[in-house]
Design a protein that fits this description.
By secondary structure, the chain is mostly helical. α9 runs antiparallel to α10 and α18 runs antiparallel to α19. The C terminus is likely disordered. The longest helix is centred in the C-terminal third of the chain and has 26 residues. The radius of gyration is 34 Å and the shape is elongated. The termini are far apart. Helix content is 70%, strand content 0%. It has 25 helices and no strands.
């Protein structure tokens, strides 16, 4: 607080009086950290005293602040000992309205809309809201939100009309809000308008539309342009993907690392960028291999990114960048369907947890459609009766599925079973196995020539 304000307030300057009162009031409500030169009780007296001095000279803001002290006593510091007639809240508000204070006009409109302090009257609410937006169109965003979020009076059409008042005057926040409740045919136009006005979230939204081809023809170049303009962590993460995977350009892992680092930093870094940065350090793409840094970034991302959880589990399981800890690996694998096969191994072999063949069987059954090893292990469960009733037919079914991917164990199990029990199928299988191995050798020799 400037010393000059105290002098001006003492000389009757109403704006200075309001500034002094605001200063003490903000301190009492915890909005200022700096100490004040009086006790809290004295500060309360000064707040009321200075507002009343300004109000006596017709200051509109002072009257509104006195209304707030009376009416919102639970939200403000308790002034009950310093305001004689708390029921006068409405009178303070009406004084401020008569002096055309915009916050007061908005509040009265809100009260008429909601039936608070005044009898509910939608037409009067409309009248006050029109006065407010005539003085400052930006209030259209606030008014739109009242209708957009009201429990009793929710009305997307009215909300959109008020958002449009502010948006048409260049309010990018209102443009963003209008997108949520306008007709689908108008949605894209508002996204473009908000993006062109410089709204970073709208720019990301527009970039995503071009990237995925949502309501527009897919255009990766236009998406790249809007991601570049946005500057948010999400857009920086996406730019990293462009360079890492060579989307519409030549791969450039070093450049990708730069973008991932920008997006991953800070308290609210992008989880995908953190996961990809972990990958860069784990596999040495764009940077030297550094398992400790990889584990660090996987850990940062693991709360929100499924791949990061899986990779962090691998780090613990194999002791890469962290001390080997099978229990911690299990805890992370446990959360991910992507690693349900490994989850099955933990229970099947008792790695860090008590062996439980039934749980292992359920895990392998879920993973088998997607994972070769899970197919083989599910075959074992059926063949040996581990975690389920023994069923040789189902065992061979799953061994065959794994064998078709050249799983050596499964190839041999099918081979030996048919040899022992079904000579005709054995002959057919020998041909299939020979074809699989032939393709495998052909592929091997192709890599040598």
């Amino acid at each position: 607080m400037k010393a000059e304000d105290y002098k001006l307030a003492a000389l009757g300057d109403t704006d200075a009086q309001v500034r002094v009162a605001n200063y003490y009031d903000e301190h009492l409500r915890g909005e200022r950290d700096s100490p004040i030169d009086v006790s809290d009780e004295t500060a309360k007296k000064l707040v009321v005293q200075y507002y009343k001095m300004a109000d006596a000279q017709g200051n509109a803001e002072a009257a509104f602040r006195l209304f707030e002290l009376c009416y919102y006593d639970e939200d403000y510091a308790d002034y009950s000992d310093y305001i004689e007639n708390r029921e006068d809240a409405r009178q303070w508000l009406e004084k401020s309205v008569q002096r055309s204070y915009i916050e007061a006009l908005y509040t009265v409109g809100k009260f008429y809309m909601e039936g608070e302090l005044f009898e509910k009257n939608p037409s009067k609410a409309e009248k006050y809201f029109k006065l407010v937006t005539k003085m400052n169109p930006d209030y259209g965003a606030n008014i739109g939100l009242l209708y957009d979020t009201s429990i009793e009076d929710e009305d997307d059409e009215i909300a959109y009309r008020w958002y449009k008042v502010a948006a048409d005057c260049g309010n990018s926040h209102a443009m963003e809000l209008a997108i949520s409740c306008c007709e689908k045919s108008e949605n894209l136009a508002w996204v473009i308008k908000a993006a062109e006005s410089g709204d970073s979230l709208a720019q990301v939204a527009l970039a995503d539309r071009y990237y995925y081809g949502l309501d527009v023809e897919r255009d990766l170049d236009k998406a790249f342009k809007w991601y570049q303009k946005s500057g948010t962590s999400l857009s920086q993460s996406r730019l990293g993907d462009y360079y890492y995977f060579g989307i519409g350009m030549k791969e450039n892992w070093e450049e990708a690392v730069q973008w991932y680092q920008k997006a991953a930093g800070g308290c609210t870094g992008d989880a995908h960028a953190q996961q990809m940065l972990g990958n860069c350090y784990f596999y040495g793409t764009g940077v030297e291999i550094d398992f400790e840094r990889a584990a660090y970034w996987y850990d940062r991302a693991s709360k929100y990114d499924r791949v990061a959880k899986q990779m962090l589990a691998d780090c613990y399981y194999f002791g890469k960048g962290v001390g080997r800890d099978v229990q911690k690996a299990f805890e992370r694998y446990n959360q991910e369907v992507l690693t349900i096969q490994t989850y099955g191994d933990f229970y099947y072999f008792g790695l860090g947890v008590p062996a439980n063949k039934s749980k292992a069987f359920e895990a392998y059954k879920k993973a088998a459609p997607y994972d070769i090893r899970a197919k083989r292990m599910l075959g074992n469960c059926y063949y040996f009766g581990h975690g389920t009733n023994r069923n040789i037919e189902k065992a061979i079914h799953w061994y065959r599925k794994a064998a078709m991917h050249r799983d050596e164990y499964s190839l041999e199990m099918v081979n030996l079973y048919y040899t022992a029990h079904d000579g005709k199928k054995a002959k057919e299988w020998f041909k299939t196995e020979a074809k699989l191995r032939s393709d495998q050798w052909d592929q091997f020799f192709t890599t040598l020539t």
